[in-house]
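The records we work with from here on pair a chain with its fold. A complete example follows; check for yourself that the lines match position by position.
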Amino acid sequence: MKQKLLLLVCFIAGIGFSQAQGLPTNPEPGKCYVKCITKDSFKEVEETIQTYPAYTTLQVIPATYKTVEESVLVKEATKKFVYVPATYENVEVPYVNQEGRTDLKVIPASFGNDSRTFEVHPQTSGWEYKVLEDCPSVNKDDCVAACFVEYPAQSRDVSFTTLSSDASTNAVPVSEKTTTYTKRVIKTPARMDEIQIPAEYKTIKRKVIATPASTTTNTIAAQYQTVTRTVLDKKGGITTWEEVDCELLDPNVLPVFYELGSARLTPASKKTIDETLLPILTDSNVSIEIMSHTDARGNDDFNQSLSQQRANSVVNYLVSKGISRSRLSAKGYGETRLTNRCSNGSDCSEAQHQRNRRTEFRVLSN
């Protein structure tokens, strides 16, 4: 059932106002009161219910058969076509296996001989100086004689070849060559002869239904059982006001501890719950909400899930002590309600992180 905040009044003064609002008639100044819910009352009734429906069983009478003979077609009539190949005869066909041509015969060029005289050096003349061998003077220039000399021209005969007639060709005809090849020609063309093939029949025996299958029916009666069930006898509701410690209405931190990364309660934590929460729930009809928190270290989704599991552990423990689950609510907040600055990535001491790893409770109403 969805939880909501308990209707609460803290009285300091004003009796007339309380009567007008349906509040406690004799409140004490400085006290806090909660309007409590009376439980629904139930009664047991007996009711006969059908535990097994009536039904019909069927018994099958098998079909019977008889044997009959029947002529059946096992191969349909058809026809086949027989191929008669063509016949051939040989004929000789002439053809040119080498065409005629004209060959060319080369007549080489012819040559003659001739000669010619060439002047290879012209006629020259000039002074020539000669030193006398028995010159009495120390200066050789005193014994030089000058002579005017003339040299005749020089010539040479050169032989060479002359072209008498240039190279040419003569045409030489070569006749074509003929032969024959053998060719097979159709004497009678191919044809298809059609042959009829009759149908084939066979006598078979088969079983046919003489009497079809049938059924007989048998009706089985329904089965009943008397059961006792609990039904609502009287609806509960908000009926009375009870005094409650005002400090219980605000979130109160419980020194509840768990194993590392686990939602399992330690023996010391169970003792704290026995001494703190259990007396409040046993001595009154109030409902409470268990709120569990983690520090900011670790994965956000894991912290959210772990805080919910830890809050559930406290509720389950209280239920094991006889407290109705309808009076208890478990809520995990993960790291969404830190009490200090120690969020993701902050440099905090272990003691600062410890203050965020807490379990709280507050008074609620159904």
Notes: Confidence is low (pLDDT under 50) at residues 1-20.
